Amino acid sequence: MSEIARVLKTFIGYLKRPDLYPELGRKIIKNTINRNGAFKGKEKTNFWASARAVSQEEAVSDLFGTSILTFREDFKEILKQAEQNENECPIKMGGPGALELIFYACEFTKAQHMIETGVAYGWSSLASLLSLSKRNGILYSSDMPYLAQDGDKYVGCVVPNSLKDNWRLYRFADKESLPKIFGENKIFDVVHYDSDKSYNGRMWAYEELYKRLRKGGVFISDDIGDNSAYQDFCEQNRILTTVVEYEGKYIGVFIK
Length: 256
Known about the structure:
This protein has helices at about 5-15, 20-30, 40-50, 55-65, 70-75, 75-90, 100-110, 125-130, 175-185, 200-210, 230-235; strands spanning about 55, 115, 140, 165-170, 190-195, 215-220, 240-245, 250-255. A hairpin with a 2-residue loop joins strand 7 and strand 8 (about 250-255). The chain is built from eleven helices and eight strands. It is globular, with a radius of gyration of 18 Å. It has an eight-stranded mixed beta sheet, with helices on both faces. The chain has about 260 residues and is α/β, with parallel strands linked by helices.
């Protein structure tokens, strides 16, 4: 699909969904007036992140006092099936990230309620639910519809049906999904952010999520090197954060 065709299909998809009109307005502003917002402070933050980055294994050990070594073996068959489901999916979406970091954050907090933004294939959802399901906990997820790819039916395709009773999926932009989720549950044990990559989008969501994270809860944000939003948020709130380097990108994580 050409870029022009993709943009046109996306625009038509928005027009068919009045509930997404607010996000359409924000997209237009972001791609016209605020076009540089996605990369604000990127160079500064990549220097900052690279100077303090540790491995996922080190982060899990230091923060949660455990080893990641048994995760892949403990869930070998589930992960194998998940990988097969991704390979068979005709739509290209985001792949797996630091699954162990997410899983052990849930184990460390004995999470009953977790919130994530961004789902795609559902790898982070799977890692979360493998822990949450032990305690009959609930994962609340916010994920925008895939308007250009007809990919909605594949969102979360790596999550097995046996775990879906513990999952609540909201298919709107964060500014619409998060208030709906907060209406269902007000305090969370773990936050995982992986959606709007813009500086302003991150800063808005970080604030909303942080104030609903319980004391002792874990906050995780993917792709913090895209711009300086995560660094700025941590510095403004005097948060001591760990930075994880994973597959050439940076993840931020801290315990509140």
